[in-house]
Amino acid sequence: MTRGGLAAALVCAWAATAAAQTITAEQAERVPTDRTLPALVGEAAGVVAVDGDGNPQIRGGTLTMNRMFVDGFEVTDAITGGFGARLPFAALAAVTVRTRATDAEAAALGGVVDVETLGGGDRLHLDASVWAGGAALAAGPLDAGVRARPVAMLPPMPTFDWQASLAAGGPLVRGRLWYALAVEYDRAGDADAALAHLRLTWAPGARDVVTLSANADPLVRGDGSVEGGAFAVARWEHAAGARATTRAQAGFQYEALPGDTRLVARFDPSLTLRGRLGGTHEARIGLQSLLAVRDVDVAGGRAFVAADGSYRRIDRDAWALRQWGGGVGLYVQDRWRPWPRLTVSPGLRFDWGAARNSVGETVASLWGLGPRIGAAYDATGDGKTVVSFSYGRASETLPMLAAANADARGVVATYQWDPAAQRFLPLGASGGRDGYRLDPHATAPHADEVTLGLGRALGALWAHVDYTYKRIANVWDGVEVNQIWNPAGSDVVGFVDGRAHAVFQYTTPDANWRAYHGLDFVVETRAWSRLDLYAAYTVSWLYGPGAEELGQVGGAEAGWSPFYNPRQTMFYDGFLPEDVRHVVKLRASYDWRGLSLGTWLRYQSGAPAARRYYNAFDGDFTTRRGPQDELRLPDTLEVDLRVAYDVHAWLGASHLTLVADLFDLFGLDGVVAIDTRDLPSYGAVLRRQEPFRLQLGLRYTY
Amino acid sequence: MSARPLLPLLLLVAACDPHLKVPGSWDGPIDPSLLPADRRGTIRPAMATAGGLPAPYFAFAAGDDAVGAPAAAYVFDPAAAAARCTPPAGYAYDARRDAYRLDQQGPLFAALPDGASPPLWARVPVTSNGEACQSVIDAAGVGARGDVLVGAPDGVLLAWAVVDPGADVAAPLGLGWWARRLVAYLDGGVAPTTADGAHVVAERLYVPTATPDGPGARGSGFDVLEARRGEPGYSPLCRVWSFDPADPQHPPTSAADIDAAGARDTGAFVWCLQVAE
User: Fold this and answer.
1) Mean pLDDT for the stretch of residues A685-691
2) For B14, which DSSP code?
3) pLDDT by residue (tens digit) across A636-658?
4) Does residue A195 have a pLDDT over 70?
5) Is the N end or the C end of chain B the one with fewer CB atoms within 10 Å?
6) Cβ-based contacts of A484 with chain B (< 8 Å)
7) pLDDT of the residue at A293
């Protein structure tokens, strides 16, 4: 390759990957992980996980704003936006976290997670492993919820967590048809999961490739409840000469939770064109379409709780609902090189989405137009110094989460016991046909993002500094519109319609926004086979009133949304709960004669929190007296270590690797959650980092 | 490339705070824990009569009748019949949306009461000059604003008891500001002073020694005031007198029915704010 060609290749690589972090299966197997996809996603700069239950917050987005793709097929949960599928760890070939909205092919307000699974080749491949960990190999309770020092409140469960995995790939018809199959059994705590992934690749001719990818992830919990789902997608790619490639894929995704099932069908055709016009172009034009249906069946019931020195009765109606949603996205994305030192990536995307609730109402019909532009310039002409810029707008137009709430859900009625009258008196209610309102003029949530980057080759290292500004506007929320609060917001003194109930308008307020500034300093290398290094420091600011993440699910706005109690709105204008100022991530591994050492280090400064005071009307600690960032939790540091030895020398073509993973090597036991309620227990530690623990593995590969 | 030039940049960005809050926005209702216990929770008036009519009063502890050095309360356009600040265009008060009216301007309190503070404020008149209503919410720096004209204390003493706006109070509350926080106050009117301005002129509060319910005590529901709010002789400060009712089963309800010669001056004072309905 000529020097100019090398430089151009580096520029292209930068333009394509500066906004992304990829970790391959080989890299992932050299460092300690809990062998789950979220662990790999969390490795990228700009990704934090603050109480996201495994779902990350990426570049200022909430945990509901990410998109997840497996082999190009979107498997995002159509309702909540979280990861909608679990894959066997051994099925993963590479995981790429795209933290910028520069490519018109995807529309995410947060980030995009691309999972590439293993495809079979003409050579047989086997990967079998068994892993043991869990509480039996930990220095303290795992996931205990409450672990106050000095005495552990809950005894450790003396159980092992197990994972058994088998992956195989190879030809069914050499040179024509290949398979890759991965199965995994997980026993974690009291839950059993069986994961399976199959990928078939068929090349009927030199110009066509057909791929079938299917996955299933059923999970049975200790209480007998079953959840999980499956997806399958078929894709046909056809190269119509050197200048055009067509691709069409269709698939479905099914998810089930107790009383809640979701089915999504997708069809995504696209056309890629290559040519010359004032330079070289590679443009992709595509359509993405989906149809989603969700069925909910919730049992009713009655509960009694102590409140205000007396008792409350909460009656919940049973309800069954079906919501529909659909949407299309049209995009065109070009990659234009007017001359070798410059790559320009203009794009444009149009999205439309709508959803209907169980009573036939259109909850929202939203559209968004997203221009994209990116440029990367080889400043020194030798491919060693690259300057980049990008701007992009992404819109979220599928309002299934709103439809899940703006629906005729069962009434939840609360009664207060009156000792004098010796009976329960109505206190309030929510839900029901008149418990919500729609906003026909809602604006689609959207994110505008500007990035600047500077990259420089330093010997075998690639160092880059990236600045990101993102503003996410018109975020969905439930705006309570019926309760009249006193000036202090401590009690409801009336109701607009004269009836004691809450009414939520599900809409996208202009005042509901999030802003993110971030600077990443990254040094990485993939050039050395023995040494793999990725080190990133991110300093960022995330602020705005859009603190609410999932409150609109289940009517949990009280105490979490700025639009529930208007007297409390100002307390939500501050640094957001996911505002982690400083993050350091280090992934490093080194191999020497079969002995492998790998480490994963994560330092994170403390996340904001606020003291919450009791509100007699809500019957909960929903009142704030200061901004949502009035205090911060302590910083946390976790250092994990993998020691592995491959006895390859004695086995010929096979590898047998003994692995020991030491998590939280120094047993730092950092605080990750405290009691923020205004009680004598205020400040008490609710959750700590998981303690020092060991994971042992035995892996055979061929 | 040396990493040394990056260090100052790192330090600089780490010290940044790009988050700017909306100028003029309020900081929320006052944290009630900053107020004395008698200014939050349930606040009920003591039942009393004056001239045979009900005259409930809100009682707060008083040491003596000395004026002392009351903190300033900045009152906007005190002589104007209506607010002179500028409301938002087309504004109509919405009780659900608005914690306070945006066609009025609440007073600014220079301090919060502590347990020993009298509910007494030195009025500082402020003249509106086109400012938006409720845009001035902090006494600190009010004099430096260009959109209002701050006068000198005019010698008027206001008997206003600052309370938690979330308090359960059986009377109308005014709303004002302390350090960008919304506070409420019980308006006990103007406190009359002696000619030298050193003392508050108190009215008498008669407490019967016996009532139909047993021995009398201040606040037991049979107190008698000399004057009701708005009548000559009204004062938000009361000097407590004790008397023996001729018929404890039917205590007097007017000071005119009390034998003043037989009444005894206890020497005690109490703030007795009567709030206009």
Assistant:
1) 88
2) H
3) 999 999 999 998 767 777 899 99
4) yes
5) C
6) 95-96
7) 97
Q: Residue A623: exposed, middle, or buried by beta-carbon count in 10 A (0-12, 13-18, 19+)?
A: buried
Rounded CA gap, B172 and B274, in Å?
11
Supply the mean pLDDT for chain A: 88
In this complex, the residue of B1, B26, B30 whose CB is nearest that of residue A458 is: B1
Q: Which residue of A has its CA nearest to B18?
A: A541
Question: Among all chains, which residue has been given the structure tokens 């979280």?
Answer: A82
> The complex's ipTM?
0.90
**What pLDDT score was predicted for residue B185?**
98
Chain B positions touching chain A (beta carbons under 8 Å): 1, 6, 10, 13-14, 16-19, 21-22, 25-33, 95-97, 99-100, 164-168, 173, 175, 182, 184
- Give yes or no for residue A153 having a pLDDT over 60: no
Query: How many angstroms from the chain centroid is the CA of residue A370?
Result: 22
Q: CB–CB of B19 and A574 under 8 A?
A: yes
Nearest to A570 among B13, B18, B25 (CB): B25
Q: What is the pLDDT of residues A437-475, one digit of tens each?
A: 999 999 999 999 999 999 999 888 899 999 999 999 999
Q: What are A637's strand-pairing partners?
A: A603
What ranges in chain B are assigned the alpha helix state H? 6-14
Query: Residue A431 is inside which H or E element, if any?
Result: none
Instruction: Answer whether A544's CB lies under 8 Å from A514's CB.
Output: yes
- Residue A574 with chain B: CB contacts under 8 Å: 19, 21
Q: CB atoms < 10 A from the CB of A457, how many?
A: 18
**Reduced DSSP (H G I as helix, E B as strand, rest coil) percent helix, strand, coil of chain A, to 5:** 5, 55, 40
Looking at residue A7, its pLDDT comes to: 47
Rounded CA-CA distance A60/A506 in Å is: 22
In this structure, how many other beta carbons lie within 10 angstroms of the beta carbon of residue A139? 15
First-to-last C-alpha distance (Å) of chain B? 77
Q: Which two tokens stand for residue A388?
A: 């980049």
Residues of B within 8 A of A573 (CB-CB) are 21-22, 25
Hey, which residues does A228 pair with through a beta bridge?
A256
Nearest CA in chain A to B16: A541
Q: For residue A521, is pLDDT > 80?
A: yes
Q: Which residues of chain B have pLDDT under 50?
A: 1-3
Average pLDDT over residues A398-424: 87
Query: How far B6 CA sits from the closest chain A CA (Å)?
Result: 10
Find where tokens 């197997």 sit. Answer: A29
Higher pLDDT, A309 or A601: A601
Distances (CA, A) of A261 to A75, A81, A82, A220, A524: 15, 15, 15, 16, 42
